[in-house]
Design brief:
The chain is an alpha+beta fold. Helices cover 54% and strands 13% of the residues. The protein contains 14 helices and five strands. The chain has helices spanning 17-20, 25-35, 37-54, 56-59, 163-199, 201-215, 219-228, 236-249, 253-266, 270-277, 282-319, 330-333, 340-345, 352-374, and strands spanning 80-83, 89-102, 109-120, 122-132, 136-144. The strands form two sheets. The protein has a three-stranded antiparallel beta sheet with strand order 1-2-3, with no helix packed on it. α3 (37-54) crosses α14 (352-374). The protein is elongated. The chain starts with 16 loop residues before the first helix and ends in a 6-residue tail after the last helix.
């Protein structure tokens, strides 16, 4: 037997070259998406907002439902480091409580720091009890101070509630309602668009005339009119569903026209004709072949529609015809800014605007990245 090593450099690979470098469509989209720094930033912004909303009780140093009228409109507490007013060294950050002083001339209340005692900011502290996800009873909070101290990093509202905690909680309604309404809109628009483009003929004419009829209505006035019809006595769930459907009512038309155009270009392709020759049903062709080929475009439209719904909900709630108590949203938190005098004296109540801006920018960044990544003609 010959034990000499055999040179196998000339032996061809058993794996075809096209299979070695093969990538699925979604793997290709993911690889393109990861290259976009702006898209990753947008996704992280949305992820942070979602985490703050879901675990709002944990991130809030106080109870989300605590009302203290004596703490109304406390300004954001300044965080100090190292040495307090009495010369004592602090290893970590600390705050002072605020006390109010009455101006003898204008009779206005001014909040000033009480430097007689400093309160160290501690992390993962015990505090007011709450139910995580509405199920698990907990009393652990991300940060807080010892008993007798307060910490309001964004100040308080007119009811003495911590603005940071309430803004985190408000994201639950603002984000979930915008996503729910957008999903309804995208589902209706994409299905009608696919059906219109596939069947053509009188079906296409009827669906397109109906789409044009809905698109002819001005969005904002109709939203306001429909929102005003929601009964004030309706329960929270009814209001949530009603407002979501209102936002979805007029936002599906553009997607329906775009998907129809895409399907018109696909229905005469070889793989669709082959499916028809093999006896595939219309439902199978639509949902197995045509709809998946428009899915990338649908996902992009979904991410780009959410910011518009967030802004619409914020505007209607700001006017008092959208979300109402006991629900809370970013737009509802902005209602206090309608009073110019209150706004001029307590500018920190504009803090929820930051959450709205971050949400809108995050979804726009994400949508732009998905649009570029899903483009089949984009450079690899």
């Amino acid at each position: 037997m010959n034990d000499e090593p055999v040179d196998t450099a000339w032996v061809p690979s058993l794996t075809p070259p096209e299979q070695e470098d093969h990538e699925s469509y979604f793997q290709l989209v993911w690889r393109r998406f990861r290259r976009s720094t702006v898209s990753i930033i947008g996704a992280l912004m949305i992820l942070v907002l979602v985490l703050l909303a879901v675990f709002a009780d944990f991130f809030s140093p106080t109870s989300l439902y605590q009302i203290d009228l004596q703490s109304s409109f406390i300004p954001p507490q300044q965080i100090h480091f190292f040495e307090d007013a009495n010369g004592n060294f602090h290893l970590g950050p600390f705050v002072y409580n605020y006390v109010y002083e009455l101006d003898p001339q204008t009779f206005q209340v001014h909040w000033v720091e009480d430097t007689s005692k400093a309160y160290d900011i501690k992390f993962f502290v015990q505090g007011p009890e709450y139910k995580l996800l509405g199920l698990i009873p907990l009393n652990l909070h991300l940060f807080g101070v010892d008993e007798g101290g307060t910490i309001h990093i964004l100040g308080t509202d007119k009811m003495g509630r911590d603005l940071w905690g309430k803004a985190c909680e408000a994201g639950r309604i603002s984000l979930s309602m915008s996503l729910f309404g957008t999903i309804i809109s995208v589902a209706a628009g994409s299905v009608l668009g696919v059906a219109s483009g596939y069947y053509g003929g009188w079906v296409d004419n009827v669906l397109q005339r109906f789409t044009e009829f809905i698109a002819a209505f001005p969005n904002l006035p109709l939203w306001m009119a429909l929102a005003a019809l929601v009964p004030k006595t309706a329960d929270s769930f009814t209001v949530f569903v009603a407002m979501s459907c209102i936002f979805a009512l007029l936002s599906w038309t553009v997607l329906a026209r775009e998907v129809r155009g895409k399907v018109l270009s696909l229905r005469e392709t070889d793989f669709i004709l082959a499916a028809k020759e093999m006896g595939a049903s219309d439902a199978r062709i639509i949902f197995r072949h045509l709809y998946p080929n428009t899915l990338s475009h649908v996902i992009v439209i979904l991410t780009l529609t959410v910011p518009g719904v967030i802004l619409a909900e914020s505007f209607l709630s700001f006017l008092g015809i959208g979300i109402t108590e006991p629900l809370i949203s970013w737009g509802l938190m902005m209602r206090n800014t309608q009073d110019i005098q209150t706004l001029g004296q307590n500018a920190w109540i504009l803090a929820p605007i930051v959450f709205i801006v971050v949400a809108v920018l995050g979804f726009n960044f994400l949508g732009d990245g998905l649009r570029d990544a899903a483009d089949p003609y984009a450079a690899k």
